[in-house]
Amino acid sequence: MGHFSRIARYAAFAVGMLCLMPVARAATFVPLYSFCHSIDKFVCTDGSNAGSRLLQIGADFYGTTSAGGPRNQGTIFRITGAGAFKQLYSFCAQVYCPDGAAPGKYIAHGPDGDIYGVATRDGANLNSGSIFKITTAGQLTRVYGFCSQKNCLDGFGPIAVAFDKAGNLFGTTTGGGSYRFGTLFEITAKGAFVKLHDFCSGKNCADGIQPGALVLGRDGNFYGTTATGGANQAGTIFRVTPTGKFTTLYSFCAAKKCADGAQPTALLTQGRDGNFYGTTLLSGAHAQGTVFQVTPTGILKTLYSFCARPYCDDGNAPLDGLTLARDGSLYGTTSGGGVYYNGVLFNITTGGSYKIIHNFCAERGCFDGALPAASPILGRDGNLYGATTAGGDKFNVGEIYKLTP
Fold first, then answer.
1. pTM of the prediction?
2. What is the pLDDT of residues 126-140, one digit of tens each?
3. Number of Cβ atoms within 10 Å of the Cβ of 178
């Protein structure tokens, strides 16, 4: 991985980099679990490529891997803050995978106490994906299979689910629907499927294409992003009410040379100030992605443009949104850049003050993980918990970590 050449390159620029940006040095990074502890026929039976954002329930953390497991179709796992790991479920446990495969990166805690998520593929209904729920003991149930309607008018390729205050389930798909560019749907507490919006229903797809995950705002409405489409074909931010009233709040690439960013990543986070915060994968001042703030009425402010430092040592290409810290600032990750080119974990204030908390692949062999696809969550103990898709002390297929800021 060119680790030592990167160290040499870093040493050559160390003084200049310290002048450009503060770097947190007191953070304590602890690898909790490296995937591929168990192997059978060249498959990591305990899971691999942990690209999910973790979910805390009680004292335990839950997450998914997109690969691995006995059928190499992904897993759901539980881990304690001390690193005790247990695989709860391996997808594709049945012939043709009617239980689903390749789980999504976001899971939700349902009002019934179970965990809800999506399988992006499954063996039923043209391999179009499904919604599942699983108990904390590992019993999985299929809630809904997409492409159940003629011509897949209900959508296919689900992204994630979220709950409103009444316990109804909402979510998005990246394909299908009346215009074949995705849907926004509700499944009521009684189990009825209701399609609320077909993406690309506006002229020139002004309402967006490829929706991401939804977040419930404090006003009771859902907020989300689309990766493409919009007035400038660079993605959007939208709001939808629980009854389906859809409003496009902002279209990216509205600024000169797309300085406001393009292709927003999936999940928004509402700050203490009531505004929403997120990231874009592309564009910005250095064409490597941004961190932004947007008001509930759609006024956007770019807080930071990645790759502001030489060699993108501040990171680039974030693949997830942000996590709210106790002090009102935000944590996030980038999938690339950093001193070792394997991503960073960063903190940013709502005023735009940016600092690096951890450079991934800082340990020889990337034993501290590499290439995070999801941001960490803030545990109830004040530590950050997250996962990486690569690195670890086994076979470079990811790990779970704890970091004390």
1. 0.92
2. 899 999 999 999 999
3. 16
